[in-house]
Amino acid sequence: MQSCRDTRGIPLDEAGISDLTYPIVVLDRANGKQHTIARLSMSVTLPHDFRGTHMSRFIEVLEDHRGEVTMRTLPVILHALRQRLDAESARIEVSFPYFLERHAPVSGSRALMDYHCTFVGVSGADGEDFVLGVRLPVTSVCPCSKEISD
Fold first, then answer.
1. Do residues 69 and 26 make contact, with C-beta atoms less than 8 angstroms apart?
2. Which range, 16-20, 44-48, 63-67, has the best average confidence (pLDDT)?
3. DSSP letters for 51-90
4. How far is C-alpha 105 from the geometric centre of its chain's CA atoms?
5. Smallest Cα–Cα separation from 124: which of 69, 63, 61, 75?
6. How far apart are CA 66 and CA 86, in angstroms?
7. Residue pair 118/95 in contact by the 8 Å Cβ criterion
8. Has residue 21 got a pLDDT over 90?
9. Over residues 27-40, mean pLDDT
10. What are the strands of the beta sheet with 89-103, ordered from one edge?
């Protein structure tokens, strides 16, 4: 069906996959790379004469990069999606836990702490856009609580 021409003249704003769980590799300053599990949504826009797209092509593009999703590979992945799916623009959103080793301030004990990260990339005729989001756990102590605890 997706390779048949559509005579209705309706372009598709987004055609793709969402909520895909997939192993990826991200950059890690301390260790070079870090393996993690991501949730991905990938989509392309299609012209009015396309009926749909091959959903397996999205996975093929990810596999071509062996799951490495970084600031360096995201533009390449988006370009490959546009090319392989003959699309005007492509979008990818990747959410994943990222782990950093942290030291407790008093005891010095070490443990991994997770941070929720999101990459959003868009590539189209107008150029490329990349947004990195990080959700951090933050704890603050008011001055009088700190004074009492001392």
1. yes
2. 16-20
3. ----THHHHHHHHHTTTB-STTTHHHHHHHHHHHTT-SEE
4. 32
5. 75
6. 22
7. yes
8. yes
9. 91
10. 12-28, 32-46, 89-103, 110-124, 127-135
| Close Cβ partners of 86 (under 8 Å, ≥ 6 residues apart) | 50
pLDDT of amino acid 123? 94
Sign of CA dihedral 42, 46, 52, 57: negative
Residues, the chain: 150
E strand or H helix at 45: strand 32-46
Give the pair of three-digit tokens for residue 92: 């990818």
Q: What is the pLDDT of residues 110-148, one digit of tens each?
A: 888 899 999 999 999 889 999 999 998 777 666 665 566
- What is the DSSP track for 98-122? EEEEEE-TTT--EEEEEEEEEEEEE
Query: Which amino acid would we find at residue 130?
Result: F
- Across the chain, mean pLDDT equals 83
Amino acid letter at 145? Answer: S
Taking the CA atoms of residue 24, residue 25, residue 26 and residue 31 in that order, the dihedral angle to the nearest 10 degrees is: 150
Q: Which two three-digit tokens encode residue 80?
A: 């490959």
